[in-house]
Amino acid sequence: MSDYPVVNAHHHIGRGGDSTDRVFEWQETIANVIGAMDENQVDATMLMPLGGENDKSVTEVHDQIYEATEAYPGRIFGITAPNPHMGTEWVKDEITRCVEELDFKYAKLHTLAWGVDPTSEVAYDFYDACVENDIPVMVHTGPHGMPFSVPGMLMPVAEDYPELDIVMAHMGGAYTLTQEAIFMAERYENLYLDTTLALNMYVRRAMETVGADRLLMAAEHSSNIPVALTKIDCIGADEEQKRKILGQNAVELYDLDVDKQQWDEQAPAADD
């Protein structure tokens, strides 16, 4: 058991009892998430809608996530992910509602699900809403969603919004795109790297070049949690680096008040 909070900083959830998303097939429920967290000794998870929801249904998922944050305070935190093509005012209002009323911690711009150019006017309106609400933004990067998901697309964004913390989900995805994401994070101090689905060798390279301070452990789905955790054990990180990557960075970046679990005390008693 670690003496620091372990935070899964990027995880998707479907809409109510409907486990099939409109873009991606995704079997996941709040019960699944909590069960996987307990099984793998993860203290907190940050939940967001899947890509593919429209304006009404994404609002329903936001409300569903909020109910989970109320049911599991300090363990579940919310993330807003509206479709930027639904109109600037609606998107701004929904992000603001999620932050001010639901206490959500950041917003995600899903370049793949929405087919959105991260340098477009609607994307910049999205970033403006994040700045106005004083929250970071996560942007999907990787081979799926190209050309809009190429990490280099965020170069002008990082330059135009130096006050905005930007997390590159999947840190580019794989191979040359991951190397590009690492290069970007070396160049711009407001860029962070999310380890979801990234290869171990690149996570290690990022730790050695960018530094552990800007790496965030995340799983995206309950079935990935054991892999996401084991990955950090396989990159040669010392205890302080593990502390940062596995949770402390997320706590500080997203201003989380995590309910650190006492796992040993909660272990089931042995049969007499």
Folded structure, characterized:
It is a single chain. With 272 residues, the protein is α/β, with parallel strands linked by helices. The protein has a single domain (7-260), classed as Metal-dependent hydrolases (TIM Barrel, Alpha-Beta Barrel). Helices cover 42% and strands 13% of the residues. The protein contains eleven helices and eight strands. α3 links the parallel β3 and β4. α3 runs parallel beside α5 and α7 packs parallel to α8. The longest helix is centred in the N-terminal third of the chain and has 17 residues, at 55-71.
> What's the number of domains?
1
**Global mean pLDDT:** 90
The CATH architecture would be: Alpha-Beta Barrel
What order do the SSEs take from the amino end to the carboxyl end, as H and E? EHEHEHEHHEHEHEHEHHH
Number of helices: 11
Supply the key terms.
single chain; 272 residues; alpha/beta; TIM Barrel; eight-stranded parallel sheet; 11 helices; globular; disordered C terminus
Short description:
By secondary structure, the chain is an alpha/beta fold.
Which helices and strands appear, and what pairs or packs with what?
Layout: E1 7-13, H1 30-40, E2 44-49, H2 55-71, E3 76-80, H3 88-100, E4 106-109, H4 111-114, H5 121-132, E5 137-140, H6 155-160, E6 166-169, H7 175-187, E7 191-194, H8 200-209, E8 215-216, H9 225-233, H10 239-254, H11 263-266
Parallel strand pairs: 1-2, 2-3, 3-4, 4-5, 5-6, 6-7, 7-8
Helix pairs in contact: 3-5, 7-8
